[in-house]
UniProtKB/TrEMBL annotation:
Keywords: NADP, Oxidoreductase. One of its GO terms (molecular function) is oxidoreductase activity. InterPro entries: NAD(P)-bd_dom_sf, SDR_fam. It comes from the Bacteria. Belongs to the short-chain dehydrogenases/reductases (SDR) family. It holds the Pfam family adh_short. It comes from Dietzia lutea. The lineage of its organism: Bacteria, Bacillati, Actinomycetota, Actinomycetes, Mycobacteriales. This is Short-chain dehydrogenase.
Amino acid sequence: MWVADLDSDSERGTEPALGVDGSITQLRCDVSRADDVRATVDAVVKAEGGVDILVNNAGVMGRTGPLDDWESSLEDFERIVAVNLRGPFLFGRAVAPLMVQRGGGDIVMMSTDHVHTCGWPRVVSHDDSPECPWSASPRPPGALGMDIYDATKWGLHGFTHDWAKELQQHRVRVNNICLGATDSRMIRAFSGYADYDPPPEVIAAWQRPEAVAGVIVDLLLEGPSGRSGDNIGLWRGHPTVLPPADPLLNVNRDDD
Ligand SMILES: NC(=O)c1ccc[n+]([C@@H]2O[C@H](COP(=O)([O-])OP(=O)(O)OC[C@H]3O[C@@H](n4cnc5c(N)ncnc54)[C@H](O)[C@@H]3O)[C@@H](O)[C@H]2O)c1
């Protein structure tokens, strides 16, 4: 397994979380830079012969909104879009042809519960819809004060949806995890809340990163005939387990 991150300590916790037996190779990579992405993928191909799985996990958050001043809005937009949308785009473009050559693969996006949908393009509501029993969202989609972040994560739906359809014939699956609050450096240091110091009971309610990693492993274990095009909602207060595939999103439905 290869971990590409800006941070040289990014492999912390990865091995036990994923139950990886083999080695983990770490590369420094800025996912927003095309040359870094190209070099990373080339290094993996040289060492491993190809790429089977891509998890587009890197992300940054920011507290932003429509009333922010002009200059900071422009900076925030470039910074957040570069990592959260351009990064997954670049990695997807770099690995999709390799996966097709190899006869299949998996691409997993890391989105947010703010933009979880239940059957494209309907969004979840507070109601426990009988059509989508796993979508009892604790709040309506979107998070106050994170408009650029949410827009980038909506963008991942677009890539997921289109890539899942286009790559289906090549046995490449593409799915999107719509993650709720999960204990991580990001959430503990949420920029914009400089004095954010969550009490233990709040931290205890967050999902565990190991459990989220376990859901990704279960998703991958579905194999080539498993779901593709899904956006998988995981949030606190609900079991952190792989829900059934959404029949309205899944391009690998039996009836297709
Ligand atoms: N933790 C949550 O509650 C939560 C909720 C919803 C979605 N997510 C998503 O989950 C993913 C993982 O976030 P996390 O919570 O583990 O946060 P995290 O901050 O622990 O991990 C994000 C990683 O992205 C890396 N990164 C940032 N910019 C980069 C760049 N330009 N190039 C390469 N790497 C870069 C960081 O170094 C860090 O290791 C993100 O996409 C995030 O948006 C997290």
